[in-house]
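To start, an entry.
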Amino acid sequence: MTKDIYDELASAWPAPIVARREVARFSGGVLNPRTLSNLDSAGEGPPKIKIGEKMVAYPTKSLVEWMRMRNRTTEKTKTKEK
């Protein structure tokens, strides 16, 4: 099986979770922590872990899979628009 960009993101990350505040660094600037916060509020974000009162993190594998799914959805929408 060939590695894709999402697998590379996950393998390069040193921890099993990604803190929301680190999402931009994890994704190379593609995702913004505020965007994920808004999507979480709408029930459209990736599975998350709440640590303490305010800290939110995402299991690395779940975040990568969510990014993959969002990309597929975007690609399908673009195909339908053509």
User: Anything to note?
Assistant: The first strand starts at residue 17 and ends at 19. Strands lie at 17-19, 49-51, 55-59.
